[in-house]
Amino acid sequence: MNAAIAVSDIQREPALMGQTVVGSAVIGLETARSASAEGAKLILTGCSPERLQRAEGEVHAPSSGDFDATDPALIGQFFRDLPTSIDHITVTAGLPDYGCLIDVDFAHAHRALDEHLSLFIAVARNAADKVKAGGTLIFMGSTGNRRPAIGLGTASTETAALPPLTANPALELAPVRVNLIAARFVDTGLSASLLGDELENRRNQLRAKLPIHRVVQPTDVAALAVHIMTNTALTAATYDVDGGQQFVDA
Q1: pLDDT digits (tens, 9 = 90+) for 101-142
Q2: Which CATH number describes the domain made up of 20-242?
Q3: Where are the domains of the chain?
Q4: Helices 218-230 + 29-37 axis angle, to 10
């Protein structure tokens, strides 16, 4: 005898309903979309007013702020101007910097470090009085450059420093949670602008070599970010989302 089982759609409340998420209008835009889909209110940030305005229209963000994230004074002003406390902050500013350290201009190297290390410290210090208990700071790092090599410049230093620079404020700001997402190649507009005509070749290389047999998408990073926001047991940890790229010659 066959038994037929009817399964109805399971209804659930959006995971971030009523919560406020601060995030980037450029690299973190997909995370903003995912957070909005889960009911979050958005505050977008960025250094380009034009891109910020376009992003606001895409995700219907009610407020935003454009400023240079490497300037501690401007970061402090942004947090002071927030009208209310917030629940989650995602920080995705800064790009890896390459070149031999003995050749690099000192001011250039200093700015490269500021875009990651000093930025983390400035955000953590200013977020202390703004993020609600149980909320999150989510920083962005990389699984690349974990081994020093000629030509990596400050990139390997930044990669090595980010996990402890995440764990320490997780202890100091508790019960606010602080975590690090480490990605590698993500198929974004930024990747397209950097690779130009070589973009499709790079995609094909990764599809052939990565254990997941596909390229990591912004939605993969966004899904992890939202999970970290909603799983309140996660703090002081680094989460890799690179499709296994760090373990293969890719």
Answers
A1: 889 888 888 888 888 899 999 999 999 999 999 999 999 999
A2: 3.40.50.720
A3: 20-242
A4: 50
How far apart are the C-alpha atoms of 57 and 34, rounded to whole Å?
Answer: 15
The long-range contacts involving 60-66, CB below 8 angstroms and separated by at least 24 positions, are 60/36, 61/32, 64/25
Longest C-alpha distance within the chain, in Å? Answer: 78
* Two structure tokens written together for 127: 């977020």
Query: How big is the chain by its Cα radius of gyration, in Å?
Result: 19
Cα gap 69→123, rounded to integer Å: 9
Which residues are bridge partners to 20 per DSSP?
41
Q: What are 182-205's pLDDT values in tens digits?
A: 999 999 988 999 899 999 999 999
The span from the CA of 162 to the CA of 88, in Å, is 19
Q: How many CA atoms lie within 13 A of 231 on its CB side?
A: 12
Predicted TM-score (pTM) of the model is 0.90
Residue 175, preceding peptide bond in cis (omega within 30° of 0): yes
pLDDT(207) > 90:
yes
